[in-house]
Design goal:
This protein is of the alpha/beta class. The chain has four domains: 114 residues, no CATH class; 272 residues, Rossmann fold, CATH 3.40.50.300; 245 residues, no CATH class; 240 residues, no CATH class. 36% of the residues lie in helices and 16% in strands. It has 33 helices and 27 strands. The chain has an eight-stranded mixed β-sheet, with helices on both faces. Strands 19, 20, 21, 22, 23, 24 and 25 form a seven-stranded mixed β-sheet that branches. The longest helix is centred in the last third of the chain and has 24 residues. Pfam families: Z1.
């Protein structure tokens, strides 16, 4: 009976794939046994007993979420927006569900607002209708089912569906008569699953009619092979690969010894795709071999046309021809071979819809030659950039989609250069995926408290970061090695207790670039490993101390549901097993693998095959491990290599990624300066994503921002850490930026250590505010704190209040202060001031300024320029002294937001009493460095004079929030201006003397 129910309702959901939601019970009755399903009670009984893994329950989850997020004007959607509660109500109404079934659906398949990708796009032509998506859905449907069977959550698969659709719909229609070449960029997070995204894009593109797919990987064989295998495993599948296997020699195949091939884990399509009327996918590269010049087998690039009088791109030919796949590394000779072969069919190549996927598109692909070398308006190009340009030039129907986690180099490309790869048509920023460990998991961005005073329960840095001294010390590396052993043992303990299975366990050591330094480091680690006495009493004593003071404490507080032994003695058997896995059979061998470009080490590096074997090794390397390549099971990182560019630094962050059931064990050993550099790089990245999110929504049907206008939104939190190497300047200049209801907290204040004059001048501007704050009574406001649960941060009430002095000033007075402040950067805060200056009095009339006081005694309390007393807060400057790291404190912001009329989850009567219409709020902090504060406090304790911190050593820094009444009437949040009016559409122009 239950099988009949599942079959009927599954068939009904399949049928609704084309039409959208219809009367569920009625349609299931038509397709199944009407007597069984007519009143819906059978479905209720079935779903109440079905577990999360039940196929029909998963199908309902997927289909409902699909309807939730689809962009459609179909009648069933009733004009509702995607990903809203109203859309879900429209779906339930269209399904004609009775009250009990509605209640069950709300419980089993709750609506969850989807945080989809951010899309910045120029004008484009919609061609991906629901009918076309449904009719040609072979490879995508199988890939979706593969991911669900692999264990992906239905909501994650739905998110991938949404994100990939935002890319595919902005490609050119492959059946279009007039060729158009779209260029776009997809921005993910480092180690966040970009390969899954472009695999989904390829699946949908092949379904839609793209017949040549070229995937450009990074510059190493390791990454190319890893990408090829992923596509073979998850997209082409067994049937396409078996086309290459000889009927007389079925064992001679590149995957014959692959455990996933033997275990039948390569995706299956239920038969050869072409037998079902869909394209086969033929490979022009293999797991073992990069693309090679086609000599005798040149017919592999010939595309079959059923009707020779018609073009290949016409449906009658396109949908009956096979597809070709090339996975090539970005190597000059490889791409030259590809260009040469394609050139031999150039007369017909213009008919072929082509998709070029450029993985790690900011590496090697971008033209980085200096304009000084260009002659007679002819650009000199780097080799890979020139070859990509040739591919685009010879294939009129080629679509280019770059993938990267660091988009800076790509968006600095000149869009007027038709041969280059500027993403002129679209930029898609992917959301942070669930379960991902990223920047927020290794930095306490909102904390001003010294690290040692933060609790492990609330501090990401206390959990995962271990700071090293600036100069290398063997004992610190020894500790990292001990941590590698212990975390491996804990994994085996959990495995032994049936909690999880851990195939790989790795440690990464990255200190420098040179091969010689890699050899030296490997030799040092080998010597330390042999002297570690890991099976003897001294080694076990050392491991016990580290386990009890670090591993156990962190895991007990942050992962109480994970099996972690309270007694170190219970871990000893697992330590022995871990050492067996880490130590090669050859007693003279080492657990260390050097991974670099040294050909002498290539044979050794073959053991770094995460697909064919377990890898429990310590990896020492440079760039081969620093971009694109996924280091499976990475748990401990020892990192000392510095760089001066954000994109290079972020790509070295191999510790970012998915750490299922062992994120509590992850440790990064690095210096304070490098950790600070990563913090700045992560802030640059987060800032850009937030800016794109703000401006992604159209205004009056027009985009507020196009890809051409992205570069001015890129921040640089450290002057010594550039977003990317660049030798030209932006033409699009941001002249006005609105931030209604959004906090504004500039940090680029003059450094008091480089002279106090600018700081003193800035402070005098605040004298009227300090005077009024002194005249009013001190008030108490509600304290809040940030609590992170999983990947989400929420605000919680704290049963304490904090004191603050309060001043109220007019908008005119505030503008006079802001206009006069001197910053480190010439353009700092200017676009915001231009907007504030344009506001009417009914939009913004007055400001409430809070100067918080401290109860902890960490700061210094004193008068400032004759007013007060006020508390001086301890703050830290970036190592290069370019800016403050952080200004405001989370616990104070709730009151500031409520004063500005913004809704928060924690009530505050004192703040609410200060709110009026057209009122903004400011948190003003007198800040100084630790040494100045401690000197002042010591002097006061000794009753010495003078005891106050000099005014020139105090920086008055602010956090500002405007009310929603400041929203521009036309809805546009930003205004642009071209630096060179003669080239208004150019993104970058040559710098002229006097430009800023």
């Amino acid at each position: 009976m239950s099988d009949n129910i599942a079959t009927a309702y599954s068939a009904a959901l399949d049928a609704m794939g084309r039409t959208g939601p219809k009367s569920l019970h009625q349609l299931a009755g038509l397709l199944g046994d009407e007597d069984v399903v007519a009143d819906g009670s059978a479905l209720l009984s079935y779903l109440r007993s079905a577990g999360p893994e039940d196929a029909l329950r998963q199908q309902f989850t997927h289909v409902l979420a699909g309807w939730d997020h689809i962009q459609t004007d179909a009648k069933w959607a009733a004009g509702t927006d995607a990903n809203t509660a109203e859309r879900r109500d429209a779906i339930i109404g269209a399904l004609v569900l009775d009250a009990p079934t509605r209640e069950l659906f709300a419980d089993r398949f709750p609506f969850a607002a989807s945080f989809g990708p951010i899309v910045i796009a120029d004008d484009w032509e919609e061609w991906r209708t629901e009918e076309r998506r449904h009719d040609r859905n072979f490879y995508w449907a199988h890939y979706r089912r593969y991911l669900l069977d692999k264990g992906w959550a239905p909501e994650a698969v739905n998110g991938l569906d949404l994100a990939t659709e935002e890319v595919v719909r902005r490609l050119s229609d492959p059946t279009r008569t007039h060729a158009y070449q779209a260029k776009g960029l997809v921005v993910g997070y480092v180690q966040s699953g970009k390969t899954a995204n472009f695999t989904g894009v390829i699946a949908k593109a092949v379904d839609a009619g793209y017949r040549l797919v070229v995937v450009l990987t990074g510059t190493t064989n390791m990454l190319r092979a890893q990408t090829q295998r992923r596509l073979d495993l998850e997209l082409l599948g067994r049937e396409n690969l078996e086309l290459e296997i000889s009927a007389h020699d079925k064992t001679a195949h590149e995957y014959e010894d692959d455990p996933d091939w033997e275990a039948d884990k390569f995706i299956r399509h239920g038969g050869r795709p072409s037998d079902a009327g869909y394209p086969d996918i033929r490979r022009l590269s293999t797991h073992s071999w990069d693309y090679r010049r086609l000599r005798q087998g040149f017919s592999a690039l010939e595309f079959h046309r059923r009707e020779r009088t018609k073009n290949l791109f016409e449906p009658v030919n396109l949908f009956t021809s096979d597809a070709r796949l090339v996975v090539a590394k970005k190597n000059k000779s490889v791409l030259q071979d590809l260009v040469a072969d394609l050139g031999r069919i150039s007369d017909r190549l213009g008919e072929v819809p082509v998709l070029i996927i450029d993985d790690e598109s900011d590496q090697a692909s971008v033209n980085t030659t200096s304009p000084a070398k260009w002659k007679n308006d002819s650009k000199e190009r780097t080799a890979i950039n020139e070859l990509i340009g040739q591919l685009l030039g010879m294939m009129r129907r080629a679509q280019y989609v770059g993938y990267t986690a660091t988009p800076y180099a790509n968006v600095f490309v000149d869009p007027s250069d038709v041969e280059d790869i500027f993403p002129r048509d679209f930029l898609v920023s992917l959301p942070r995926p669930p379960g991902y460990m990223g920047a927020e998991d290794f930095h306490d961005f909102d904390s001003d408290m010294p690290l040692e005073q933060r609790s492990i329960a609330e501090s990401q840095e206390r959990r995962h970061v271990r700071l090293l001294s600036e100069e290398p010390a063997e004992d610190e590396l020894f500790t990292a090695l001990d941590m590698y052993v212990l975390t491996g043992a804990v994994k085996l303990y959990r495995e032994r207790h049936g909690y999880a299975s851990y195939r790989h366990h790795t440690m990464l050591v990255h200190e420098a670039m040179g091969r010689d330094s890699h050899k030296e480091t490997a030799a040092l680690i080998t010597r330390m490993w042999r002297n570690g006495d890991y099976r003897g009493p001294s080694g076990l004593r050392r491991l016990r101390r580290l386990y009890e003071k670090d591993v156990l404490e962190v895991s007990r507080l942050t992962a109480p549901d994970h099996p972690t032994p309270a007694d170190f003695d219970d871990l000893k058997v697992d330590i022995g097993m871990a050492l067996n896995l880490m130590t090669p059979p050859d007693r003279d061998a080492s657990p260390v693998l050097v991974v670099n470009s040294d050909p002498d080490l290539e044979k050794q590096q073959e053991s770094l095959d995460f697909d064919r074997r377990k890898v429990w090794r310590i990896l020492v390397g440079g760039n081969k491990l620093a971009r694109g390549f996924t280091v499976e099971g990475l748990t401990v990182t020892y990192y000392r290599r510095a760089t001066s560019q954000v994109d290079t630094l972020m790509q070295m962050g191999r510790w970012f990624g998915f750490r299922p059931r062992f994120r509590d064990l992850v440790r990064i050993y690095t210096t304070e300066d490098l950790h600070s550099m990563f913090a700045a790089a992560c802030q640059d990245e987060a800032y850009l994503r937030a800016e794109l999110q703000r401006y992604a929504q159209p205004n009056n049907g027009q985009s507020q921002i196009t890809p051409r206008q992205v570069p001015p939104l890129i921040a640089q939190h450290r002057p010594d850490l550039r977003p990317a190497a660049r030798n030209k300047m932006w033409n699009a200049r941001l002249v006005e930026r609105s931030s209604p209801g959004e906090p504004m907290e500039p940090v680029a204040y003059p450094d008091p250590n480089k002279g106090t004059r600018k700081t003193e001048t800035n402070n005098k501007l605040w004298l009227p505010v300090l005077a009024r704050a002194t005249e009013r009574e001190i008030q108490k406001f509600q304290t809040v704190r940030a609590v992170k649960v999983g990947d989400k941060t929420s605000t919680r009430l704290v049963n304490t209040r904090y004191d603050a002095r309060v001043a109220i000033v007019s908008h005119t007075e505030m503008l006079a202060i802001l206009d006069g402040i001197q910053w480190n950067g010439d353009d700092t805060f200017k676009p915001e001031i231009a907007w504030l200056r344009s506001l009417r009095s009914d939009q913004l009339d007055r400001w409430v300024v809070l100067l918080p006081l401290q109860s902890s005694g960490k700061g210094a309390r004193q008068k400032i320029m004759g007013h007060g007393p006020f508390d001086v807060f301890q703050r830290i400057w970036t190592p290069n002294r370019g800016s403050l790291r952080v200004i405001s404190e989370f616990r104070h912001r709730n009151a500031a937001h409520r004063i500005a009329g913004l809704s928060t989850s924690v009530a505050d009567p004192a703040a609410d009493a200060l709110h009026q219409s057209a009122t903004g709020s400011v948190l003003l902090y007198p800040v100084a460095e630790k040494d100045d504060i401690e000197s002042s406090r010591s002097a006061k304790a000794a009753e010495e004079s003078p005891s106050d911190i000099p005014t020139g050593r105090i920086t008055l820094a602010f956090h500002m929030v405007t009310p929603m009444s400041t929203m521009p009437l036309n809805g546009r949040l930003i205004k642009w201006q071209a630096r060179d009016s003669r080239k208004p559409t150019a993104l970058v122009v040559d710098a002229q003397p006097g430009d800023s």
